[in-house]
Design a protein that fits this description.
This protein is an all-alpha fold and 452 residues long. 73% of the residues lie in helices and 0% in strands.
Length: 452
Amino acid sequence: MAHNLLTRKIGFFSATNIVVANMIGAGIFTTSGLLLAGLHDPILMVVLWFVGGIIALCGALSYGTLGTIMPEAGGEYLFLSKLFHPFFGFLSGWVSFIVGFSAPIAASAIGFSEYLVRAFPVIQDFLSFIPANNQGLIIKLISAVVIILFTFLHAHGLKKGVFVQNLLTLFKIGIILIIIGAAVFWGQGSFSHFIFSGNSIKTGTDWQVIGISLMWIMFAYSGWNASTYIGSEIKNPAKNLPLSLIVGTGIVMVLYVLLNMVFVYAIPPNEMAGEISVGGLAMGKMFGEGAETLFSLFIAVALFSSLSAFIIIGPRVYYAMAKDVLFFKALAKVHPTYKVPLKAIYLQGLIAVVYVLSGTFEQIITYMGFSLGIFPIMTVAGLFIIRKKDRAKLIKIPGYPYVQVFFILISLVILVLAFMYKPLESGIAIGAMLAGIPVYLYFDKRKKQLVS
């Protein structure tokens, strides 16, 4: 593997902020309406957000141990390569390439566009050449333009320091805290919205809906492993890396559950179901049209920062794989003036635009959620291998083996149920992952030829 001369500059506070910043993105501000459209039960939806947080915490506990044992940059690419075989590390990197960053960029762009149009409906007047009943196309066009603009912006050497990242993270948390606090003290809503009068879960289809709902929720929680990607740059990684994962994930879980309770309190279930820009709608219901416009704009900016961060981070993974001679050589080239992996940035932007133009928001998060749900299962299972090999060292693994067994089993059940409910999107995700096999064989053969 390629090694970079990275220095340990990131402390506990900044590492935790990176985890929180990666988690709080399009998911929490866009998926609750889609969840309620399928579940029809507000209380069940809030409970599933709590369950998703517990799953993420179990993953964070497990990854924290792995990060302590292997405190280097790379995340799953590193863990799977060392625990199993470089082949599995490559496949996780391949999925990151075609899904892991490009799809969240697309989802964040769509979420941004939904909130922007809610804040400024006049935008639709400027796009009058598009039929009035086709707002979806307007959203797609705005999303594609946003991705293209930010791709070009970051391709020309725009840098974001840890200080700026901390400010953006605090901005996101501030928005959520204001929404929660305002709802508690001044919001106009009704607890009757929590009352469910439908049928209880009885059929297999209902369980499939729960499965796909949890997968969408785990999309919102994705990022609970963020600090493992920068393990080489964290001070005192044995302490700060696992603690940043656990504290960051815990903070986000509390915020997510409270925020969803606010959404349900503010919005009648029939109006919330299917709504993507649910945060703006909630503020409008509680405080009027002015608050809806203002907070829709605030949330759009928060999603803007998430999109920007993904555009910066993603190419680093492809660059590392290319430096290991396990990916396209051109992606390892750094622009002599801008000092960025230019071609990797452009290629990622192109893939994200394709996602935006070819699929709906629901299809994108289903495809992404299924793809990204596979390799964490393998990674957590690797702890059993470590425990078996290093019994003499008695490595401390929090909650072992119960936490790991819970995470693996629940994650597998979610994938199976999601596949049964959305076989097309799930099948495409599996096919995209398997497409990485011949790519690996090609690059592995080329690497061996270069070494010999």
